[in-house]
Inverse folding.
């Protein structure tokens, strides 16, 4: 299977909020249903580091390493008795217009471009990961302090639910959806000690998510990440 994009995804922060499923209905692609955990629908504000990015195994000069901030939710579909669990991106933010253009053009994604930055501070047993993005002349932020020790995710936990969705779904139209597969191992995680989130959700993602700016997330997780490959082939779903 041809690989469209390959990169290291490192230090993935995910702040998770339970939301009313009705909020997600306008973004739900045809042919999939919301994937719930204990009866709740979740969105995740995600910050992570893209490194050593390659398109069709060709390195991208000057643009191979950058921060990404996204808001995503969780869906599933059944095909031939197999449950496919995936994510839908409401928006993905990166700093480089050329990378966003390629992703939007080839994959019909929802990338936008803003200035971003990050910092990683490591101590003997703890680390602090910080991602920031500039919106209306104000730096927004998602940051965590966590232990360095890497652990396996607990089986059947919310943490495993959040991290282990291996398909992506894009709403191409009201009756058409594109499905693609992500390849990566199960990630190791770090216990989060503290977090700091300052995000203008209304400005970034629309008024439907405005209440999240003052909401306390249900959970905040940190995964160490790995090399991730996104397959070129897309499966079209039609109603």
């Amino acid at each position: 299977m041809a690989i469209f994009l390959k990169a290291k995804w490192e230090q993935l922060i995910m702040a998770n909020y339970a939301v009313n499923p009705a909020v997600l209905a306008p973004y739900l692609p045809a042919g999939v249903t919301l994937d719930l955990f204990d009866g709740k629908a979740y969105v995740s504000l995600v910050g992570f580091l893209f490194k050593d990015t390659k398109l069709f195994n060709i390195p991208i000069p000057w643009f191979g390493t950058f921060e990404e901030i996204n808001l995503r939710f969780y869906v599933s579909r059944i095909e031939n008795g197999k449950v496919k669990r995936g994510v839908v991106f409401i928006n993905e933010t990166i700093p480089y217009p050329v990378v966003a253009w390629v992703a939007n053009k080839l994959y019909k994604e929802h990338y936008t471009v803003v200035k971003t930055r990050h910092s990683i501070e490591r101590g003997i047993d703890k680390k602090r990961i910080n991602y920031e993005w500039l919106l209306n002349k104000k730096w927004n932020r998602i940051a965590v302090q966590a232990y360095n020790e890497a652990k396996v995710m607990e089986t059947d936990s919310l943490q495993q639910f959040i991290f282990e969705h291996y398909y992506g779904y894009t709403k191409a139209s009201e009756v058409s959806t594109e499905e693609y597969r992500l390849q990566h191992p199960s990630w190791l995680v770090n216990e989060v000690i503290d977090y700091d989130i300052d995000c203008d959700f209304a400005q970034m993602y629309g008024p439907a998510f405005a209440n999240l700016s003052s909401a306390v997330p249900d959970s905040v997780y940190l995964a160490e990440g790995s090399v991730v490959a996104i397959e070129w082939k897309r499966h079209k779903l039609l109603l």
